[in-house]
Structure formats: C-alpha cells, structure tokens
Amino acid sequence: MIKVAIHGASGYTGFELIRLLLKHPEVELVTLTSRKFAGIPISEVFPALRGVCSLVCEDFSENEVGKKADLVFAALPHQASMNAVPSLLDSGAKVIDLSADFRFRDEKTYSEWYQHHSTPELLNEAVYGLPEIYRDKIKKARLVGNPGCYPTSVILAMAPLVKAGIVELESIIADSKSGVSGAGRGLSLTTHFCEVNEGFKAYKVAEHRHTPEMEQELSALAGKPIKISFTPHLVPMTRGILSTVYANLNPGVSVDTVTDVFKEFYEDAPFVRVLGDGVLPNTLYVRGTNFCDIGWKIDNRVNRIVVVSAIDNLTRGASGQAVCNMNLMFGLDETTGLLRTVWQP
Ligand SMILES: NC(=O)c1ccc[n+]([C@@H]2O[C@H](COP(=O)([O-])OP(=O)(O)OC[C@H]3O[C@@H](n4cnc5c(N)ncnc54)[C@H](OP(=O)(O)O)[C@@H]3O)[C@@H](O)[C@H]2O)c1
Predict the structure, then answer these.
(1) Is position 289 within any domain?
(2) Which residue among the candidates 149, 194, 292, 324 is catalytic per the annotation?
(3) Same domain, yes or no, for 153 and 278?
(4) Residue 29 near residue 22 (C-beta atoms within 8 A)
(5) Which residues pair with 245 in a beta bridge?
(6) What are phi and psi of 257, to 5 degrees?
(7) For residue 13, which atom of ligand 1 is closest to its CA?
(8) Which of 148, 231, 263, 341 has the fewest Cβ atoms within 10 angstroms?
C-alpha cells in the first residue's frame, strides 16, 4: 500500500483527494494537515465524511508529514507550497504539488507572473503532470507540478492540432468558463453567493496567470514560441470548466484530417474522450470524474475550427489528475481507482 499524506487537506482540492483516495485500492491515507483545523476530525471539516473517514487533522510540519508518507499531495496555495515542498522532499517523500509553484520550466516566467521563486533549482527537476504528454517522465519523477485547471482544458483541446501543425499558431483564442469552486474554499467577496448567483462575467482578461502555462506547453508541442489570447469567465455553478478554443485552420485541412489527428494523439489516453466532429461536451457528464471530453466543429465560412473541452476543475483539473500522476509514479496503471467514477444528473 502507498502511504499518502495530504498537506492542506481542508481545502476543496484536499477534500477531492480524500474522496478519490478513500476508494483507491492501493492507498492508505495516513496524514491530513490543516493549520486552522489541527486537532479536529476531518469529518467535522467536511460533514460528507461522517462515518467514512476517522482521521484527525494535524498541524503543519513538513518533516513529520514527509517521514510518515511515501507520497505527499501538497494542496496549498502557491508560495505556501514553494516553502513546504523542499522539506517534504528532504524527508524522503515523493511530492505532487497542486499549486503553480512547480509548473514552470523557466524561473523568469514564474517570477513575472507570480513572485520570486525561492527554490528555482527544483524547477529543473519537476515534471509537468499532464499524463497525455509526459507519461514517461512522470513515472520517474520525485516531484510533479500538477497542471492548472484552465490549462488542462485548453492544452488538451489544442495539443493534437498544434503538434500536427494544422492550425495557424498565432490565431489561438481560448474562452473558458469555470465553476466557483475553482477559487477554493476560502471566503471572498467575489465568490460569495449573492455576487455570483444568476450572474456571468469575464475576469482577469489578458492577464490571467494560467496564460503562460498554456503557452509553455503549446510552444513545446509546436517547437516554437506561441502566444495565445485567454479569457476566463466565472459561471454560477459549483464545479466544471468548459473551454471553447478557436484557431484558424491551415488551408486544405479537412474534417477527416482533424478527426484522425485527435484520434491518433489520444489513442492511448484513457482519460480523454474524443467525442468527434459536431459532438459537443457538457460539464455535467464529466462531473466528479477524471475525464476530459473533447468535441469540435469546423466553421467553413471563416475557415476556423472551434474545439470545446469539458472537465471537472476539482477532479481532472486538480485532484483526479494528481491521483493519476501518483499511479504513474508508483508503477500502477494510470486508471487505478479512477476509471469507474462517473456522474450523470
Ligand atoms: N480549486 C481548484 O479548482 C483548483 C484547481 C487546480 C489547482 N488548484 C490549486 O490547488 C491548490 C489548493 O486549492 P484549493 O482550491 O483546495 O484551495 P483552498 O480550498 O483555499 O485550500 C487551501 C488549503 O491550504 C491550506 N493552507 C496552508 N497554508 C496556507 C496559507 N499560507 N494560506 C492559505 N491556506 C493555506 C488551507 O488550510 P489551513 O488554512 O487550515 O492550513 C487549506 O487546506 C491551490 O494552489 C490552487 O491554485 C485549485
């Protein structure tokens, strides 16, 4: 059994990890940490866990946590993660970090969009945790930087087209809508019920921090630098991200070529469901699952492809993907404990 700790277990991604790991056949949950709820049973923090999980939250001590576990999920805000991860690694545990702190290969990009990085040497070691692209590297990793939720949905929507070189690289526009749990469990005016319910708004236009993460990965696939336009929106629903991504098709690219490119790219990807031309996804059908559903339509009038992808921000966009990465790091099939979780309203 893999002994697992969750550092920052009282947040939304922390709960999602607990939910998935409780039914994982190869995992023993050994430690959950929270500063605010230290000494309190996790079932009081999350009443859904009553009668299901008897662990009590422990205070924050990286050395202790790292010694007890083979793997630690760091489900902390960025910067807090950067401070915690080096000691977790030093104490011998493998780490999957859900924050942005270990997603970037270039320290300068991180410091431009976030803040000074205190352990830039670890950026060279960390593997970007998108299994469809980095499966083999993840298997050997000691530290995984788990992708952001918006980037997961946008990169998966565009990766096959960019890799195949069939779209104009400077034409990509990603328009994404997220449920409110994307902002975490902490309270803030912008995410409180009356400010969100029955409204729909764009935010951080042309300045959202997930933009450089998408650019990093799409540029690597293209073999040259790509800049994209990214506009996030807040939707009054609890979970889910729907990304609508536009790109100009190169001359002469047919629907059949697009279909072949997607099918081939995701041939061995159990968590990407290629729906096909004209079949468009819905966040409801990926809720609580690790699937990313992708469909598209070519708008021949303007020679543009519109790709739509749907994920659950907390599962495929965070904790489900993290569990998938753990499976790979410990030599398990990547679907272990994840595949049979589906949702239907
Ligand atoms: N929500 C999503 O959809 C999503 C998707 C992808 C990635 N992520 C990333 O995953 C990480 C966790 O997200 P979340 O949504 O679970 O956040 P959250 O609900 O706000 O939870 C944050 C957790 O970190 C703990 N914590 C430890 N040090 C902290 C500090 N210095 N400041 C504030 N909290 C601290 C908090 O518990 P105590 O205060 O009790 O210690 C809490 O357990 C973040 O880096 C986030 O960007 C989130």
Answers:
(1) yes
(2) 149
(3) yes
(4) yes
(5) 174, 307
(6) -65, -45
(7) 16
(8) 263
Q: How many CB atoms neighbour CB 13 within 10 A?
A: 29
Q: Please list, residue by residue across 283-310, b when 16 or more beta carbons sit within 10 angstroms of its beta carbon and e when fewer do.
A: bebbbbbbbbbbbbbbeeeeebbbbbbb
| Residues 298, 171 share a domain | yes
Residues with CB under 6 A from ligand 1: 8-14, 34-37, 75-78, 80, 98-99, 148-149, 181-182, 184-186, 313-314, 317-318
Residue 336 lies in a domain: no
Q: Which of 211, 305, 303, 304 is nearest to 294 (CA)?
A: 305
Phi/psi for 286 (5° steps) reads -120, 5
Write the CATH number for 226.
3.30.360.10
Cα 141 from chain centre: 17
Axis-axis angle for helices 149-164, 255-265 (nearest 10): 120
Domain, as residue range, for 198 = 149-313
CATH assignment at residue 127: 3.40.50.720
pTM across the whole model: 0.97
**Residues 247 and 121 placed together within one structural domain of the fold:** no
Instruction: Based on the residue annotation, tell me whether 53 is a catalytic residue of this protein.
Output: no
Q: How far is the CA of 242 from the centre of ligand 1 (A)?
A: 22
- pLDDT of the chain along its 345 residues, tens only? 999 999 999 999 999 999 999 999 999 999 999 999 999 999 999 999 999 999 999 997 777 787 889 999 999 999 999 999 999 999 999 999 999 999 999 999 999 999 999 999 999 999 999 999 999 999 999 999 999 999 999 999 999 999 999 999 999 999 999 999 999 999 899 899 999 999 999 999 999 999 999 999 999 999 999 999 999 999 999 999 999 999 999 999 999 999 999 999 999 999 999 999 999 999 999 999 999 999 999 999 999 999 999 999 999 999 999 999 999 999 999 999 999 777 776
The total of structural domains in the chain comes to 2
Distance 222 CA to ligand 1 centre (A): 32
Residues 320 and 309 in one domain: no
The neighbouring-strand residues paired with 118 are: none
| Residues 164 and 304 grouped into a single domain | yes
- Whether residue 189 lies inside any domain: the answer is yes
Nearest to 315 by CA among 339, 296, 332: 339
